[in-house]
Design goal:
By secondary structure, this protein is α+β, with helices and mostly antiparallel strands. The protein contains 18 helices and ten strands. 51% of the residues lie in helices and 10% in strands. A hairpin with a 4-residue loop joins strand 2 and strand 3.
Length: 536
């Protein structure tokens, strides 16, 4: 009785351990080793039932032969899966394991050498080669909550206290069946968690890919920001001294940050394409520069008509009138070319160029109905005089609203405990440490380290991106110079940017993701604020 109680205690302990294990390989190993322990079996194999109607060895152990494969051993099992059905479609009842699956039954064989009905040819060949004697077998199917058999536990050679091989007792069988039931639940739960995790990750990446596909000009941004984020986070976690020395990350912390990085722009699903893809100042659904071109062609046509009429009225002034016409056409073409140049978004538009746009707007042309129209509409003037980039203030607000949408979307999701901070991490990448960012105007003290890391990753990716409509991807040296200035302006976290630059995190990313012509030499000591670092 004491012996039985001891085994039951072991069964309880094993059950508790199974419920706490999160790694499937270790879980499978614990199931087999636990079953061997409570039955005092010399060997055993744990099989999984495959979708292709076969059983596959996952873990194999024989103590007396010092035989260990599968699981955490790192040694692959060379044996092929065993089909549940033959080539003729008939069920495979000759094999003990497949018979247990097909009939959903436990099979207890006292002596394989005298057992009838099963093919032990392979077992006997193994025994012949190793000098082993495979005698008693206990084969128990593992059934999940839906009644599906997901695996098979097979134990080999039960032993008494003296080490002699004996049959598996009825008590050992009941305990093994109880363990198999617990194991099936634990294994099913773990696989369900893994499947849900995989589904969650796939859905997140699907959203990110959809956003990148939505615009040819931001394609890859949602995939690249997580890379930069994790490179910087890992570098910060290695810092031994300074203000960031206490920052650490567990595996759950890393996973949470990486998911936040993948989701940081999910709100862009609400942003209209004509704003995201606005590659020129006059572009909406299409580029309105072509309408302006048509007006200039009308003005040139009207000038030519006026020339022909005047020459008919004043034939003696033909040369003078031709010169006036040519001067007019040259000026029109120069004005048109200027508007084309102004239509391209740049870093800065001079006030005198903005004044010229306004002056050109005061010129008129006559449409098909005879109405007199301004050469440029008020909206066209407002767009052409954008000082930086291609977006008006209203359009920039539409773009900026994507982060509000991101926060609202993520805060509406019931994230589990280990992902609770995803909305805060993802929603803070447009904040500034001086409180002048958006949408909440948070200061450095109000932001987590992770959110500040993402802000740096987002800026670095945007500056080096090669697929933006209004600029080419910048070289490393120029990118870091801009970011160093942003640090001095209170935009980026100084301590985190120091790690990013001094630990050359940027270099790790650049080697894989930037074009070779962007990867120029970076002398850190020449960056603003890093002159005295002595770092090259």
């Amino acid at each position: 009785m004491d012996h039985l109680l001891e085994r039951i205690e072991k069964l309880i302990d094993i059950g508790i351990a199974l419920s706490a294990e999160s790694n499937i390989a270790r879980l499978l190993e614990m199931i087999l080793l636990g079953a061997k322990e409570i039955t005092n079996a010399d060997g055993g194999t744990l099989y999984s039932v495959q979708e292709n109607q076969a059983v596959k060895m996952e873990i194999l152990r024989t103590d007396s032969l010092n035989f260990a494969m599968g699981g955490t051993t790192g040694t692959a099992i060379p044996f092929a899966p065993i089909p549940l059905y033959g080539a003729d479609g008939q069920p495979n009842h000759h094999n003990v394991v497949t018979h247990a699956v097909l009939n959903d039954c436990t099979i207890n064989i006292p002596d394989a050498y005298s057992a009838a009905g099963f093919d032990f040819t392979g077992t006997r060949e193994f025994d012949r080669k190793t000098g082993y004697r495979s005698t008693s077998f206990l084969t128990v199917p593992l059934k999940n909550h839906e009644g599906d058999i997901i695996g098979v536990l097979q134990l080999l050679n039960a032993q008494n206290d003296a080490g002699q091989v004996i049959p598996f007792s009825a008590e050992a069988q009941r305990l093994t069946e109880a363990l198999a039931s617990q194991a099936a639940v634990a294994l099913t739960n773990r696989r369900l968690i893994e499947d849900l995790k995989h589904l969650f990750e796939s859905f997140i990446k699907l959203i990110a890919d959809a956003i990148d596909e939505k615009s040819p000009y931001t394609g890859g941004h949602c995939r690249r920001v997580p890379v930069i984020t994790m490179l910087l986070a890992d570098a910060v976690a290695k810092v031994q001294d300074g203000p960031l020395r206490d920052f650490t990350m567990s595996e759950d912390d890393r996973y949470e940050l990486e998911m936040a990085a993948w989701l940081h722009d999910c709100g862009k699903v609400t942003t209209p394409e004509y704003v995201v893809d606005k590659s020129t100042k006059l572009e909406t659904i299409y580029d309105r520069i072509h309408e302006v071109d048509a007006r200039f062609e009308i003005l040139k046509r009207d000038a030519e008509i006026a020339l022909l009429r005047k020459r008919a009225e004043h034939p003696t002034q033909a040369d003078l009138l031709l010169k006036e016409y040519q001067d007019t056409v040259r000026q029109l073409e120069d004005d048109r070319d200027f508007i084309h140049r102004s239509n391209q978004g740049g870093e800065f538009m001079r006030p005198e160029d903005q004044a010229r746009i306004e002056a050109l707007a005061r010129r008129t042309w006559i449409d098909a109905t005879g109405a007199v129209r301004p050469l440029l509409t008020e909206d066209e003037v407002r767009n052409l005089n954008i000082a930086k980039g291609t977006l008006t203030d209203d359009e920039r607000q539409v773009i900026n609203n994507h982060i509000v949408a991101t926060i609202n979307m993520l805060e509406a999701l019931p994230f589990p405990k280990h992902l609770k901070r995803v909305p805060e991490f993802a929603g803070g990448h447009h904040e500034r440490i001086d409180g002048r960012g958006y949408p909440r105007g948070l200061t450095r003290e109000q932001m987590s380290v992770q959110a500040r890391i993402m802000a740096i990753a987002d800026v670095f990716e945007a500056l080096t991106a090669r697929d933006r409509p209004y600029k080419p991807g910048k070289k490393l040296s120029e990118t870091l110079r801009i970011m160093a200035c942003m640090k001095q302006d209170g935009h980026l976290d100084p301590d985190l940017l120091d790690v990013f630059i001094k630990e050359r995190v940027f270099q790790q990313y650049a080697e894989q993701y930037l074009d070779p012509e962007q990867v120029d030499a970076v002398d850190i000591s020449r960056l603003p604020g890093y002159e005295n670092t002595g770092t090259r």
